[in-house]
Amino acid sequence: MAPLSPDDAGDAGGSHHDVQVSLDVGPREEPDYLTVPVYATVTNLGPDTAENVRVTLELPAYLSGRVSNGDVSCGPPGSTIECVLPGLAAAETAVVEVELTLPPSPLEPFPIRASAWGDGVELVPGNNQTALRTSGGRLRLSSGGCSIAAGQGASLGLLGLLLLLLRSWRTPPRQRRARNSRMASTARR
Length: 189
Known about the structure:
Layout: E1 16-17, E2 19-25, E3 35-44, E4 50-58, E5 64-67, E6 73-74, E7 80-88, E8 93-101, E9 111-119, E10 121-122, E11 129-135, E12 138-141, E13 147-149, H1 158-170, H2 173-188
Parallel strand pairs: 1-10
Antiparallel strand pairs: 2-3, 3-8, 4-7, 4-9, 5-8, 6-7, 9-11, 11-12, 12-13
């Protein structure tokens, strides 16, 4: 489907733009595996500047996320994160980086949703929303081509628990105490 021109949008006032959002996930830090960076990439495909672009990330209520790049104005951490980009010029891209905190207990499949909307006329509204969905301990993009691993260490079966115990047994006590305190402090956030 070809983007609409401003003439095709009628006489509606305001800017004419096409804001697009996508989700991606970065590498996790070992050994805790309890935090995962999630990136919402927002691009304005033009032709005008998109003003007051509202970016929303929705997580299940039992998960928590916080924005970790300081150049974006966002609300408080939690299961719904709302950010505002004051202006996004045509062909400009902005990234909202969220640090997702996973619980230490096994996870059921869950979605992460992102949407982005600017003031004015949205020429192609079909690319303003996307979602990641977990399946078998992995996050997969439900409407696109991205897949990421987030379940390793988060979903422990009997074999995983046995391997964790073996690893703890072979880890020197000082390192084990440091790792356990990091995991406990992450779980409290």
